[in-house]
Write a structure and sequence with these properties.
Largest sheet of chain A: 3 strands, antiparallel
Pfam family, one (chains A, B): HTH_17
Number of helices of chain A: 3
Oligomer: homodimer
Shape of chain A: globular
CATH topology of one domain in chain A: Multidrug-efflux Transporter Regulator, Chain: A, Domain 2
Largest interface: A-B, 18 and 17 residues
GO molecular function, one term (chains A, B): DNA binding
Radius of gyration of chain A: 18 Å
Number of strands of chain A: 3
Organism (chains A, B): Cellulomonas persica
Protein name (chains A, B): DNA-binding protein
Distance between the termini of chain A: 46 Å
Keywords (chains A, B): DNA-binding
DNA sequence: CCCTAATCGGGTAATTAGGGAG
DNA sequence: GGTGTCCTAATTACCCGATTAG
């Protein structure tokens, strides 16, 4: 990681993406077919997905479990 | 693959969570809508719930006294 | 070269989301 | 106020055999 010029994106296998989303690898393939995911094809026809793209789509919807009430709010 | 870093949360389907709680999947959906459960959305709109979160809420561990009434109703 | 696991395809059942009424 | 059931449309999961990845 000491390489500042790393143009190579982190590529994930369908199985990896499926695990991240909690779905079946086939479903990930369906998303790629629908154009919802950027897919890179290997010479054999298998798909590889960009890690940054996938992680951004997972939507960090972490519940705002009331950490600290921001004051000065009209509550 | 000595993968010691297993950050991937175990994601459960609505049916799984409903079975664990003994309620209907619809009710689980309502909980997610109310923000009482952390939900990850698939690209198709389906929800996946974090296993650790769910298991923590079920709390098979006899909590010290006070069955903990998880209030947090401080809205 | 052979091997195991994963991913291609397509097709069909099961599940889920959403709203509405009891 | 919260929950279970009914409906339709959309999405997802599992089945097969063949090919690719490593």
């Amino acid at each position: 990681m000491t390489d500042l010029r790393n143009d190579e994106p982190e590529l994930l296998t369908p199985h990896e993406v499926a695990t991240l989303f909690g779905v079946d690898p086939k479903t990930v393939t369906r998303w790629a077919r629908a154009g919802r995911l950027t897919a890179i094809r290997t010479l054999g026809g298998h798909r590889r997905y960009v890690g940054s793209e996938v992680r951004a789509l997972i939507a960090p919807r972490t519940t705002p479990r009331v950490t600290a009430r921001v004051s000065l709010g009209t509550e």
